User: What shape does this take?
Amino acid sequence: MNAAPPKLKPTLGQSLVATEALTDGLERRRELGQFFTSPEVAGFIWDLLEVIHGRRFYSNTRLIDPACGEGVFLRVANERGGLPATSLFGADVDEALAPGWRQDPLLRDAHVVVANGLLDDPGSGIVASAFDVVAGNPPFSGKGLRDLLRLLEQSPEGIRHEEQDLFGASYLKEEPTSPRELLSQQERAELERLVRTLSQYSCWRLESEPEQDDEAGEGSQRAPTELFTATALFDRRRPTASDYQQAAQLIGHWPENRPLDISRPEVRDTIRRLASTAIEVMFTERFVRLAKRGGLIAVIVPESIVASDRLGQFRIWLLGRMDLLASVSLPQKVFTGVGANAKTSIVFARRRARDRPDGWYSPDALDNLPQEDCPIFMAAPRLDVPGFSVESYLTRVLADAQRQRDTFWPDAK
Assistant: This one.
C-alpha cells in the first residue's frame, strides 16, 4: 500500500493567487453565461433520447452541441451511446477550453472548434439542418450579444439600449459616452458577420404579449410589451415587427464585399435589437436550425422559455418547426455549484418534417389543421419528498418514461 504524499500547506501568497484564479474563472464563466452541466444530468438526457428514439442510435448518427463547454454531452454520447469521435461536433466561444479539448483523447479527434455556436462553420462541418441529434446546455444571462453595440460606438445616435436579466425583466442602461479603442478591421468583420447571420434568425423579430404576473410585488416593474427588450429610439417611433422584417431583408441582401452602413437607422435599430435579445433565446432557435428534418433536440433552457407570457410568440414559432416530445423540470440546486440559481427545464423535441405555415396558430387555422396532437411527457421534482436527490429524481423520471414509452412515442423511427 502506497503512502499518501504529504500535503503542503499553501503560503498566504499561494492562497491568494488560487482564490483570485478561481474568482476570475467564475466571473469569466458568468460573463459568458456558462453553467456547465454535470455528467449525471447529461447522461440522463442521453438515456431519455434513446428511450424516445426506441433503440440505440447508429454509429453514424451525427450529434452536435453548439455550446459544448468542456464537452460533457459529446462524452456521454460516446461512453453511453458508442458514437465515435467522427460523429461528434461541438463549438464554444471560450478559448480557455481549447487546451482541455486537446488533452482529451475523445475530443481531440472529434470536430470541436473554438467558434461562436450561433454561426455556421462549414470547414468543421457545422452547418444548419445537418445533425440527427442536437443536445446541450446553451449559455444564458451573461453579457449575451452586447458586444454588437461596439459597432455603434462611433454613431451619433449612441448606443443607448435596454438590458435584460435572465427572466426578461429589462431596464434602460446608458453606455459611457467616451468610446473604447476603435475596432480593428478583423473585429469589425467578425461583428458584422454576426449581425448578418443573426438578422436572418426569427426570434428577435417577433412581437410578444405583456407578462401576466399575479404574484409580482408592488415594487416590481412591469415588463415591456415588446419581445425581450423594447428599444428606446429617441425621437423616432418604435420599430414594429414589420420594420424588423424589412431590415432583415435589407441586411440579408447587403453585398458581402461591402461593410454594413451603420449610419442607416434600420441597421442601427437591428443591431440594438439583436444586442438586447436574450442569448438563450437565440441559442434555442439555433438548436432547431441545426437539426435535420426528423432530428431530435434536447436543450436545457431557463424557465422563461417554457413559461413566460412574453415569450409566447416565440414558443408558437418553435412549435411551428418542432414537435414537443417531453419537458422535464430540474430543481434549482442543479446549477448552484457553478454560480447559478436558475430554474431550468430540459426540452425534448423532434424537428418537423414540414414547417407549419405562418399564422398556423390563429383560431381559423387551428380549425383546419390535421389532427396530429400527441401527448407530451412531463415531469417536475417534488422537493418535499423525504431523501430527495437529483439523482433519484432523474432515475425515477427515466423509469417512468421507459414504462410509458408506447403511450408518448409510439411512432419513433
About this structure: Residues 233 and 393 are 48 Å apart (CA to CA). The radius of gyration is 23 Å. The chain has a mean pLDDT of 82. The longest helix spans residues 12-32.
